[in-house]
TrEMBL record:
GO terms for molecular function: ubiquitin protein ligase activity; zinc ion binding. Pathway: Protein modification; protein ubiquitination. Its EC number is 2.3.2.27. GO terms for biological process: protein ubiquitination; ubiquitin-dependent protein catabolic process via the N-end rule pathway. Residues 1-64 form the E3 ubiquitin-protein ligase UBR-like C-terminal domain. This is E3 ubiquitin-protein ligase. The keyword Ribosomal protein does not apply. Ubiquitin ligase protein which is a component of the N-end rule pathway. Recognizes and binds to proteins bearing specific N-terminal residues that are destabilizing according to the N-end rule, leading to their ubiquitination and subsequent degradation. It comes from Polyporus arcularius HHB13444. GO terms for cellular component: cytoplasm; ubiquitin ligase complex. Belongs to the E3 ubiquitin-protein ligase UBR1-like family. It catalyses: S-ubiquitinyl-[E2 ubiquitin-conjugating enzyme]-L-cysteine + [acceptor protein]-L-lysine = [E2 ubiquitin-conjugating enzyme]-L-cysteine + N(6)-ubiquitinyl-[acceptor protein]-L-lysine.
Length: 87
């Protein structure tokens, strides 16, 4: 439905993946543990809870068609020798 735009939650990495055309960027998970920390790759095995402020930010980006802008800003601020193709 959305064409070249995508927003995915990577459960095993506990992160968001923003996609637009042939570019993409990772984002912070809207889920946190009881200590307010993201359990990256679910290593600690702690239960995760939806953090409403983070979810509202993701929701706002999606509804305002801000994914292309978010990806462009992240790519401009990142020096990546491997490039997007190495993902």
């Amino acid at each position: 439905c959305a064409g070249p735009i995508g927003l995915y939650f990577l459960v095993k990495r506990c992160s968001l993946l923003y996609l637009y055309a042939n570019n993409g960027a990772f984002g912070q998970s809207p889920y946190l543990d009881v200590h307010g920390e993201v359990d990256v790759s679910m290593r600690r095995g702690r239960r995760q809870y939806l953090h409403h402020a983070r979810w509202e930010e993701v929701h706002k980006i999606w509804l305002n068609h801000g994914i292309p802008t978010l990806i462009a800003r992240r790519l401009e601020g990142t020096v990546d020798n491997g490039g997007w193709e190495t993902l």
